[in-house]
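== Polypeptide entry ==
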Amino acid sequence: MDQKQLWEALAKENAKYYINSDFGRKISEEQFQRSGQEAYEKYLANDSLIWNRDNILDFGCGTGRLTEFMAQDFNKVIVFDISPTMIAQGKERLKDLKNVELIEIDGQSIPLPEGSIDFVFSYLVFQHIKDREMVEEAFREIYRVLKPGGVFKVLLRSDKQKNMNRWWSGIEYGQEAIGVLYQKINFKLIKIENTDKHAYWLWLQK
């Protein structure tokens, strides 16, 4: 089962849980929404490295857990997910937000013009990807659609998984592998930050 098939199956089973499993399988809409607001405030609202808030691309949005809060701060919010069910649920959840566009993608190619996006954000997405080529191609596409000087903030897994067949598993990146990844694509590293022993935040600039 490829990434798209996997996440479509999980979305049909219980989208909220697989987006945020902290509250268990019976997560309520209130818990889901509050967790999105908390994540937005923690990782985006006060980030001084995000100096342009004209438009944002959220790569791997699920059903838009953070999207509604992005829409309060950015003039235009474009959000992608590989699951059509996630996108359909997101469109229903966020139907009253006029500055939000939700788009289903294949996980690698991005249906946007070159140099059209100010800021790209990806949280709890790449650490579930099980193929390095898929990660690299997504990074290349993100670089392509960013404007010169645009910023990509992304969370990458740092802990090696023993079993890649689990839904939450994904490939890991040590600091050397991270350097190879972004330098190959011509990104410049602005900042790297350990979140804990399991992940890194990267701020990359075109």
